[in-house]
Specification:
22 helices; mainly alpha
């Protein structure tokens, strides 16, 4: 796709009905890509955990805890600036490209030079060498931001998703290859470089254009200001989400951080609900001038999120050790122990993420930013407190933080539209009670019945996961039905699933299939 015509104007490819069709196709492609990416991530975790040591993962995590903040400098900022701008032309895009690339070069050199400081902080002499290698990811990523943003502005989400999936596979393939060859932590470093490099090459192939020299162009200053606000919010969120890695690596060692990071990666799967943010914001923003309908739709979404999220949190708490054993293999038992403290927070993370839907759909990014300051201060304070009890304590305060912040975050977000606490609690509390009751009942059963305690290998772990999941699901469904005095929440979920895949309209989306029949 060539983004600009001969006059330098952006080529508008989506209008009217075509815009809706491209949006639907883009949403489907994005969800499919994320599903496949998750499968690739799980497979790579299983393979790499058997080829590398916890110390290898911990060493690289020490560096990427800092580098990922800089890698996202343009991705979270300039991308949104390009997407929200009413008009963008060749000159404006060129200016943004050079500004972002220049910032990427400066940040790359600064990060490479800061390796010695990180080595002193962690007390590990290997960190500077890793920092130099990882620093390349900052520059490479900055070179791909503008072509990817232009593709998304043109609603070419299937191409963007395909490029993202291919780059992830390339990164995993490189890591696995060099881990198999015995390169240790360098296998992870090379994989981290291969992924953005593949993404960058693919972006320029899919969106070929030659940026012009920088020059004065209307809108440059306002877009930079907008990008800085978005990146500021991202920085606060990133700080609260990664302070735990920083503290564990600083207070303990690379091995402890390796165990903690793998447990956190499983916990972070609950954050995949944020992949629906763009869809939710698009729908809710159209209802912001009709508060009653807005509240009704939001509470419905909150109910579904609570139904699925609370079940997921309780179930993963029960099977977490076996999931770690199955995915990572022997030698990773401490990660399973840490995850049991993360588990209860998984369901709360699903609910907590909805506050961002409200802020963005109401156009109140300023309130979202202010809440980010509160979140950062509160969560950071708890991390410092939990550090006394080691990685287990840090994982525990993660769950505690979400327990304390979820309802206030939803209340604060809903203030502009008059959404109080009572309606939200009324659609959540029954699922919380159901998950706690079913979780404790399941735990009591598996401790008393010997057939739940089988061998400690991967086959035994898989068998226990299946048995425990089946028992918990049965008890949870019974509890939900009793507390709701009927099948209403289950029917709601089923109806939503049917709406996502309307069987009677498949022929409209897949005409070739219907013709074949």
């Amino acid at each position: 796709m060539r983004p600009f015509d001969e006059r330098g104007e952006f080529l508008t490819v989506a209008q009217g009905g075509k815009l809706r069709r491209l949006a639907v196709q883009g949403a489907g492609a994005t969800m499919a890509s994320q599903g496949i990416s998750l499968a690739v991530q799980i497979i790579s975790t299983m393979v790499l955990a058997r080829l590398l040591t916890p110390a290898d993962f911990g060493l690289v995590t020490m560096v990427t805890t800092f580098s990922l903040l800089l890698v996202n400098f343009g991705l979270n900022g300039f991308t949104e600036a390009v997407l929200q701008q009413d008009k963008i032309d060749y000159a404006l895009a060129s200016n943004l490209f050079w500004i972002n690339l220049g910032a990427g070069i400066v940040l790359t050199l600064a990060f490479a030079a800061a390796g010695s400081l990180m080595a002193r902080f962690y007390g590990n002499s290997l960190v500077p060498h890793i920092a130099i290698g990882i620093s390349l990811t900052i520059f490479i990523t900055s070179a791909s931001v503008l072509p990817l943003a232009l593709l998304m502005r043109a609603m070419q989400f299937p191409l963007v998703s395909l490029n993202d999936l291919f780059s992830r596979i390339m990164g995993v393939a490189v890591s696995v290859l060099f881990a198999w060859l015995g390169w240790g932590y360098w296998a992870l470093v090379l994989g981290a470089i291969a992924q953005p490099l593949s993404m960058c090459i693919g972006a320029w192939i899919l969106c070929p254009w030659l940026p012009g020299l920088p020059r004065r162009a209307a809108g440059t200053g306002s877009m930079i200001k907008f990008a800085s606000h978005v990146y500021g919010r991202f920085t606060l969120n990133y700080g609260s989400r990664n302070m735990d890695n920083l503290l564990v690596g600083w207070r303990f060692n690379a091995v402890a951080l390796g165990f903690y990071k793998k447990a956190y990666d499983l916990f972070a799967l609950a954050g995949l609900v944020q992949s629906l943010t763009s869809v939710a914001v698009s729908a809710l923003s159209k209802l912001k001038h009709d508060p009653e309908r807005y509240k009704r739709y939001l509470l419905r979404a909150l109910s579904v999120a609570a139904f699925a999220g609370m079940a997921m949190g309780a179930e993963f708490t029960l099977i977490g050790k076996d999931v770690i054993r199955l995915l990572l293999g022997p030698g990773w038992e401490p990660a399973g122990q840490i995850f049991t403290f993360f588990g209860p927070g998984m369901g709360l993370m699903v609910l907590y993420g909805i506050h961002s839907w409200i802020h963005l759909s109401l156009g109140r990014a300023d309130r979202w930013f202010r809440w980010g300051i509160i979140e950062f201060a509160f969560t950071g304070s708890l991390f410092l407190l939990g550090l006394h009890w080691g990685p287990d304590g840090v994982a525990t305060v993660w769950s505690l933080s979400l327990c304390v912040l979820t309802i206030p975050a939803l209340w604060y977000a809903g203030q502009p539209i008059g959404l109080g606490v009572a309606p939200m609690i009324s659609v959540i509390w029954r699922f919380v009670v159901a998950s706690v009751a079913a979780g404790f009942a399941t735990a009591a059963v598996i401790r008393r019945l010997p057939f739940f305690v089988t061998t400690s290998n991967s086959v035994g772990a898989l068998a226990r996961m299946a048995e425990i999941s089946a028992l918990f699901t049965l008890l949870y469904m019974v509890a939900v039905i009793i507390l709701h005095q009927g099948l209403a929440p289950i029917n709601l979920v089923i109806s939503l699933l049917r709406e996502m895949i309307p069987q009677d309209k498949l022929s409209k989306f897949f005409p070739a299939v219907s013709q074949a029949k």
